[in-house]
């Protein structure tokens, strides 16, 4: 599963899931039949999709009462600018699109960039509701105000008002242009557009950088890197003798996860119960099994910025290229606890993977992941880990090639242990 192809294709969570689904299909994974859990075959691989979320798994070759779960978690979404339901505006002879902020993007990074647009269209055809994944061919732009008209910008810093300063220019000289008409043109004549979920994205492809090609520059590294590492490891994995091997890719982490496609929804929990029933195991043993299992919550981590070392806790500041990161937080913004962390260190040693530790400064609150949510809902011991990166939540981010290779090796070792 080529990393750059994945990054360049996965411009929305729906595209991420489509790429993963295609790779799973080619590798022999079968879509689940929710109407018949008894159809699950020992030693076979399956997947289920819910919108921008996907869960894939291997059934054990031999199910026993002590079967456990090896669970790896990531999220398919990333900070973005979404096109609003009624986006059309016009000023100075230009038609613009009003956007709505999704998650917490670094606003300034969206200015003066070539922006594509993509998403999911819902339409009616012959009285039936259908959907289509789309990606426009044209490029839009949010131009920055010239320095001559904002003389203090280099001294005072650029301040972006997300309501007024993030409208994208998309048509010149056509005051009556309607974005919904351009979306309708992507459908067949007998298909009537009903609604859309479309967002802007950085149109520049992923590249390697640095004098030794040691870095990766791309949009959406947070958290597509984790999705790729898990998927790549899963595709190299075979069924475990006794354990369920599960990869879960959630949507909406960047906005809190409380959706039907998010980690706080019932997608994974109901699917694990369905798998357990399909294995003909006593329902009362499921919670016991989960409490003795392990989940790797994989999301990106903050590498030390060489221009801003004071922003890090000096003894817990990860370095690009020096291995994956164990993330810990006393306020439990990360799920890592002492036993889960100890188990991770054993896995790293077994896989010959270097490990760094991150905690944030006491005066700079950290973000969170799907880890605490899943750990609390399932009662499963969970450790939060990630690859160190710079420019997190920028439209274009940066990470190290060697760290990604380490993450794939670690997850593969976890699945195959």
Task: Please give a quick description of this structure.
The chain has 417 residues and is an alpha/beta fold. The protein is built from ten helices and 20 strands.
Characteristics:
globular; 6-stranded antiparallel β-sheet; 10 helices; 20 strands; alpha/beta; 9-stranded mixed β-sheet; 417 residues
Q: What is the global morphology?
A: globular
What is the radius of gyration computed over CA atoms, rounded to a whole number of angstroms?
A: 22 Å
What share of the residues lie within helices? 10-25%
Summing up helix and strand content along with how strands pair, one would put the structural category as alpha/beta
- Largest pleated sheet: 9 strands, mixed
**Mean pLDDT level:** 96
What's the number of helices? 10
Low-confidence stretches: none
How many extended strands?
Answer: 20
Strand order of the largest sheet: 1-2-3-13-4-14-18-16-17
Beta-sheet strand percentage? 25-35%
Measured between the Cα atoms of the first and last residue, the distance is 22 Å
H and E string: HHEEEEEEEEHEHEEEHEHHEEEHEHEEEH
């Amino acid at each position: 599963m080529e990393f750059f192809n994945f990054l360049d294709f996965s411009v929305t969570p729906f595209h991420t899931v489509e790429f993963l689904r295609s790779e799973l299909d080619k590798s022999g994974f079968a879509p689940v039949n929710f109407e018949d859990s008894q159809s699950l075959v020992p030693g076979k691989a399956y997947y289920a999709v819910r919108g921008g979320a996907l869960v894939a798994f291997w059934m054990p070759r031999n199910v026993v009462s002590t079967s456990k779960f090896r669970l790896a978690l990531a999220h398919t979404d990333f900070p973005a600018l979404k096109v609003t339901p009624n986006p059309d505006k016009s000023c100075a002879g230009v038609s613009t699109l009003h956007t709505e902020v999704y998650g917490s993007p670094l606003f300034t990074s969206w200015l003066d960039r070539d922006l594509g647009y993509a998403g999911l269209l819902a339409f009616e055809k012959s009285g039936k509701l259908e959907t289509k994944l789309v990606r426009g061919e044209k490029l839009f732009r949010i131009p920055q105000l010239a320095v001559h008209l904002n003389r203090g910008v280099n001294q005072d810093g650029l301040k972006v008002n997300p309501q007024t300063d993030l409208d994208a220019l998309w048509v010149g000289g056509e005051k009556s242009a309607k974005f919904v008409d351009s979306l309708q043109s992507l459908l067949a004549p007998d298909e009537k557009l009903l609604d859309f979920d479309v967002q802007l994205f950085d149109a520049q492809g992923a590249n390697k950088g640095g004098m030794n090609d040691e870095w990766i520059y791309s949009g959406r590294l947070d958290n597509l890197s984790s999705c790729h590492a898990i998927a790549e490891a899963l595709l190299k994995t075979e069924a475990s003798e006794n354990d369920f091997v599960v990869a879960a890719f959630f949507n909406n982490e960047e906005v809190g996860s409380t959706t039907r496609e998010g980690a706080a929804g019932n997608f994974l929990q109901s699917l694990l119960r369905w798998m357990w029933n399909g294995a003909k195991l006593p329902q009362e043993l499921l919670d016991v099994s989960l409490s003795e299992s392990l989940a790797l919550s994989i999301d990106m981590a903050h590498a030390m910025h060489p221009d801003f070392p004071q922003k890090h806790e000096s003894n817990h500041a990860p370095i690009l290229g020096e291995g994956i990161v164990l993330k810990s937080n006393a306020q439990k913004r990360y799920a890592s606890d002492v036993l889960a962390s100890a188990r991770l260190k054993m896995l790293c040693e077994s896989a010959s993977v270097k490990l760094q530790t991150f905690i944030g400064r006491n005066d700079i609150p950290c973000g969170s992941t799907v880890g605490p949510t899943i750990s609390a809902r399932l009662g499963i011991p969970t450790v939060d880990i990630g690859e160190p990166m710079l420019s997190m939540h920028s439209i274009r981010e940066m990470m190290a090639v060697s760290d990604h290779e380490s993450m794939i090796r670690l997850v593969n070792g976890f699945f195959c242990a």
